[in-house]
Design goal:
Layout (H helix, E strand, L loop, with lengths): L34 H11 L12 E10 L18 E10 L14 E9 L2 E8 L12 H8 L10 H10 L4 H7 L14 E2 L4 E4 L5 E10 L8 H10 L3 H11 L5 E9 L1 H11 L18 E10 L4 H6 L12 E2 L4 H17 L75 H9 L2 H15 L4 H14 L1 H13 L9
This protein binds protoporphyrin IX containing FE.
């Protein structure tokens, strides 16, 4: 006898027969009155939601963040307030450019998005496995992403589109170098570091700001796939990283990351900028560890698999705008663009009330006057649905919760940093710390796609490698010769 509960429609009405539809006679046709059949087909037709416009393929898990070091001199955020304090988290890892069904082992940055369900609301650190990014102005983001996706006519990935973009945006060179190094194909999600990447703020009880960069250091050790293994696995086990994460958590082997910060005052950043020429809010740059050492803060452990992939991993909606009191943003133009981008994308992808879903809802009490819309499942009950205007008004200076805001300088305008800002030294520094074998992998990994682009694009990109380090340019040229490039064909 079946132990399954009685099958019902979505309205709870028992379904008498789930194997044979109601037909007019044994051979049909079928009756419109067979509501159970119609509801079943209708719901099936509506199972998909749009995939994320980027980072469509991903894997998620719940975990715990535990504070190990006291950083309350820098922030009054309650989740960071005491050693030993624990906060529940949800993490989603992802690739960036591929579709929902694409292979986990593609050469691509990896997303590393963390939600902290704090008592003061959800804090989302929506980072990557790289500390820098390809561009420094969000106006370029849709164009950049189009070059990583498919050609509008052939529907193929196109090295020409990619290197046409990168070669004209030399600020991308730092992350291009990382992407084509061994770090471009991490061995699953457990063996890679994570970075908040942008400069953010921490605000303490005195209303003082420290600028901060967040780092997550894998306790499993860094492990990368060789380029050949990444290609092989894309065919043999396209869900390699999903399998690895889910099965290690299922068997109690919980991955961990040490959470650390780099901290700087305004004065320290000003002195650093004066010495290096680098804008500390430029996302194509890092703050070298030698200049800003990493301070330990806590440990992130992933210890529970989601029950339902769609409800939790697919519908989770992270936003870099979600920071809690004691934290703040920075002038980084990319971060400013992202503050708008995510919630807007989720209003379309998941819906007006996406924050009502269990994976997105805060675990602390929340209260506002947002009402109605589709799927309003936490609609405020009988509570007043408008805010009372406060007779005293609010203070004009500062951003609230003790965040004093920051002073501005310069003219309103459109600033193109190319040719003015140094886009090569940090890329060269990354190249120079690679051991010889990894340099050779970098050369080979670049020569593959570069052998498929026009001479013009290839020469422009080679010029950037030369500027970063002459050995970088000459290494790629030698690898290109081995690939038979020169017989350039557009792709
Ligand atoms: C101006 C630049 C950027 C824009 C406009 C942008 C926009 C977006 C959008 C619209 C999504 C899909 C959100 C959703 O549907 O839930 C997304 C996902 C994501 N982005 Fe960005 N992005 C930018 C840069 C970055 C950077 C610099 C990082 C990392 C430091 C990053 C990390 C991520 C991650 C990890 C996800 C996936 C989140 C998840 O797992 O649900 N993005 N981005």
């Amino acid at each position: 006898m079946s132990t399954l509960p009685t099958l019902t429609t979505a309205s709870g009405i028992p379904v008498p027969d789930n194997q044979n539809s109601i037909s007019a006679g044994a051979r049909g046709p079928l009756l419109l009155a067979d509501f159970a059949l119609i509801e079943k087909l209708q719901h099936f037709n509506r199972e998909r939601i749009p995939e994320r416009v980027v980072h469509a393929k991903g894997s998620g898990a719940y975990g715990t963040f535990t504070v190990t070091h006291d950083i309350s001199t820098f922030t009054k955020a309650k989740l960071l307030g005491a050693i030993g304090k624990k906060t529940e988290t949800f993490v989603r890892f992802s690739t960036v450019g591929g579709e929902r069904g694409s292979a986990d082992t593609e050469r691509d940055p990896r997303g590393f998005a963390i939600r902290f369900y704090t008592e003061e609301g959800n804090w989302d650190l929506v980072g990557n496995n790289t500390p820098m990014f390809f561009i420094k102005d969000p106006v370029k983001f849709p164009d950049f992403v189009h070059t990583q996706k498919r050609d509008p006519q052939t529907n193929l990935k196109s090295p020409t589109m990619m290197f046409d973009f990168w070669s004209k945006a030399p600020e991308s060179l730092h992350q291009v170098t990382m992407l084509f190094s061994d770090r471009g194909t991490p061995d699953g999600y457990r063996h890679m570091d994570g970075f908040g990447s942008h400069t953010f703020s921490l605000i303490n009880t005195n209303g003082e700001r420290h600028w901060v960069k967040w780092h997550l250091r894998t306790q499993q050790g860094i492990k990368n796939l060789s380029a050949a293994d990444a290609v092989r696995l894309a065919g043999e086990d396209p869900d390699y990283a999903q399998r690895d994460l889910f099965s290690s958590i299922a068997k109690g082997d919980f991955p961990k990351w040490e959470v650390r910060i780099q901290i700087a005052t305004d004065a320290e950043l000003a002195a650093w900028e004066a010495r290096t020429g680098w804008n500390p809010f430029d996302l194509t740059k890092v703050w070298p560890h030698t200049d800003f050492p990493r301070i330990p803060v806590g440990v992130l452990e992933l210890n529970r698999n989601p029950e339902n992939y769609h409800a939790e991993v697919e519908q989770v909606a992270f936003s870099p705008a979600n920071v809690v009191p004691g934290m703040g943003y920075s002038p980084d133009k990319m971060l400013q663009g992202r503050l708008f981008g995510y919630h807007d994308a989720q209003l379309y992808r998941v819906g007006t009330n996406h924050q009502h879903l269990p994976v997105n809802a805060p675990r602390c009490p929340f209260h506002n006057q947002q009402r109605d819309g589709m799927m309003a499942i936490a609609n405020g009950g009988a509570a007043q649905n408008y805010a009372t205007v406060e007779a005293a008004g609010t203070k004009s200076v500062g951003l609230g919760f003790g965040d004093p805001g920051w002073a501005l300088s310069g003219n309103t305008g459109r600033y193109d940093g190319r040719g003015v800002e140094d886009d090569f030294t940090q890329a060269g520094n990354l190249f120079r710390i690679l051991p010889p074998a990894e340099r050779q992998n970098l050369f080979n990994n670049l020569a593959g796609p570069l052998s498929h682009v026009s001479d013009e694009i290839r020469e422009r990109q080679l010029g950037h490698f030369d500027k970063a380090d002459p050995a970088y340019g000459s290494g790629v040229r030698a690898a290109l010769r081995a690939h038979g490039a020169g017989n350039s064909k557009a792709a």
